[in-house]
Amino acid sequence: MDRRRLSRQELIRARRGDGFVGREGELGAFRANLARDPADPDFRFLHHLHGQGGVGKTSLAQRFEQMARELGALTVYVDESVHSVPEAMAGISARLGRQGSPLKSFDKLLATYRERRHEAEAALAGPDEPGGEAPPSPGSMIIARAGVTGLGLIPGVGPFAGAVDSTQLARGTDRLRGRIGARLRNHDDVQLVLSPVEVLTPVFVRELGEAADTVPVLALFFDTYEATGPLLDTWLRDVLFSDRYGPLAPNVMVTLSGRDALDRRCWADHLEHVTDVPLDAFTEAEARRYLAAKDITDRDTIDAILRLSGGLPVLVSTLAGSRPGAADAVDDPSDTAVERFLKWETDPVRREAALAAALPRHLDEDVYREAVDAEAADHFGWLRTLPFVSERGGRWQYHEVVRTAMLRLQRRRSPRVWGERHGRLAEGARRAAEECAGGRGPDECRRDERWRELRLREVYHSLCADPRVFLAEALSEVTVTAQYEPPAVRVVAETLRQVGEDGGVPEARDWGARLTAALDGPEGLAQALTVLLARPGLDLPEQVLIHRLRGREHRKAESWQQAFADFDRCLELAPDDVHALVGRGLTYRYMRDFEPAVRDFSRALEVEPASITAAFHLGEVARLMGRYEEALAAFDRPLELDPRYPPAHGSRAVCLRHLGRYEEALTVLEHAIELHPDYAWAMAERGMTYRAMGRYEEALAEFDRALTVNTTYAWAAGARGRVALLAGRPAEAVEDFGRVVTFGTPNAWLFARRAKAHQLRGAEDEARADYDRALADADRAPVSDWSRAVFLAARAGCLRRAGRLDAARQAVEAASALAPGELPVRYECALLATAVSGVRASAPVWEALREAENRAPGRDDLTGPAVVAIVSRCALGDWAGAQISLADLLGGGTPWERIAEAEFGLRDLAALWPDRDAETTDQLEALHRVLLHRMAEAAPTSP
User: What is the CA radius of gyration of the chain?
Assistant: First the structure.
């Protein structure tokens, strides 16, 4: 599509802009800024229009947009129709796509997010490896501190922020990630579902820059920012002023237009970069110039318009719209704002249509026809020309000031007509929703954004029509929404509040306010469900549902006893409720209390033998208990019920891998991929199976396959990096770990492993920088003393090799204070002692280290026991022992990484032994040649 081709709505905005009068100073400044080079220090990339309703913010923003287009810019206009950061990015991407600059990778990732988000609740049983509780990862700590927990899935909103211990919250997030990660189609989906903003934004920013590279300016306009600012502020600030999501193109220009000043808590550090454009009512001089441009020159008429409008631009524009020719034409005794808006529309049919069309919150031609009387059905084109009606995202809506006044007038004038018109609009929305459903079940419908919008329209108009009859049903809609689409509960609550304001229904307003306040509180949705549970007259099925849903929310927050209390109460009211049995069983399972979990899942299957979920969880419990054969048999049942059920295939493969039945695991996973061709998790799990078999090249190929399907699959990239290092490809390992940093949630061990890859390819400075990052991350998200000690010891080695012995000593002392008996710490102590005192003087330290080797735990750390064994014997001149240790290391199938560690260790020791005799030199060189030869055999193409 030619990017210069405008839509019909854009043409209408442009034509309105052609008649734009006033605001000459603001327009001149904006035009001058567009003409500047973005590299010019005077180029202003962030503008903020603000002022009270009706001062013309939207009109000016639209005129700015038209001006930018005229100068060849790509432009995007976003308003309050977006309810989250992902929606904002999606809207921007869609509008750029219509201008011939699609964000293809972002759109693909967004589609994956929308699909996986709806799978997440069913996927809570993702494969967890059996074993003890692990400490929270740094990534989950970051999530916890941002206030995103469990499957709250409300980007940018922190319902738990500051109210729950972050370590406890992070631990729950880790286990949640583990539970659902393996059950979704790939592990990276966990990060995508839990932190969509963190995953989507880097791709969005990168492709936004690519689009900006093709034009002088890419201009983004965020209108009605008083509504969207609380959702978008932090994200937009970080995009504009930090490197969190990657560099932003310098020619991206942003205009914010809203009623309120910017939130100083968010923007205080950047206000010097904001071009502030305050707007107020027209001065008398400005209003007179405006009216003169509209050919209204009669002094008395102008005075009447100024008196009636108060200089508010929207009222000046409205009153001037019909070009009154005399003062008596505006000298109407009515003091209502509506009369001011419609004063010069003499056609009674059109006047009534303008009033009726104010009832819907948004208009298209179909909704307009339902709102107005039959004789006005063909006047939608006329309505769109009214100055207080504007196009927003393909729909039309009234200016807030005008609509509010018209709603009040109609409520007072005829309650009967008010009710009839709203009833007609509610019925139209119901029919449209029925047509949109197309026979689909409630689960599918509530995943459909269009269906949800129609249902909310029905709720809104039904409540306005007869709140006494419909309020109970509207509150039940909140409960059902919580069941199927938790993030949308806020939208339903806001709809109730708006009914209270628009329809004069205090009960609806109060319910909306209470629910919104609960959602913003420390317990989020769980508290909102508590509010609903307090409703008088609740029937038994809805009580059961609310308890079950609240139990689910408490489980996500690891409020175990509260979760059990809700599930128990649910089962008291409905002993055979399968969902409650499964919910309570999951709670036991997540607490690793497996026996009662088995009882609940088994009972659920007795009640409903066709429950795939209960059957699957029964197998999962056996797997988590390490009973792999039993689990394999259990997974047959869900696969009999649904042969395509992905989680069961995945869990079967994990069991087979643990049993060493690698070929069977590969077959199961390939079958899963045949059923689901984009099942990237299964491809990555095949890579893990090949890794367990020592078939590293095939493992790398499988990870590549997974990353082709999902280019931002951070878990697969990290796993590939580990295998690349084993296979002797340290440069690729560095690249793979870098992808995790870009697309995933890096942790301290990720940085440490990348540091090791740097070391093995000879990049010592980069290694030290990554060890610094590992320690910094460990400060943000607590890790074990053992881990921190390992990082400190490795960093000490970098400092020692750089000749910074004092700094190295401090790092070693800190490591020794944390974990004095750990082999990597003692090994670096020996090397540092050698650097300071020489090999002979440090012999007692090496002797003690050799004695400690056999007592070292078999951890997968950064310095393996085999390396220590070889180097310590060399330091002690025990060449026969060194040869034996080397032979042990080079047994069959030794990966390149382990051989390279030993080669690195010998070079490290040799550098500390400049005064060695000829025999020592010969012995070291002989060992070194063997290692180099085996490294070449293990990885002939290694850099």
Answer: 34
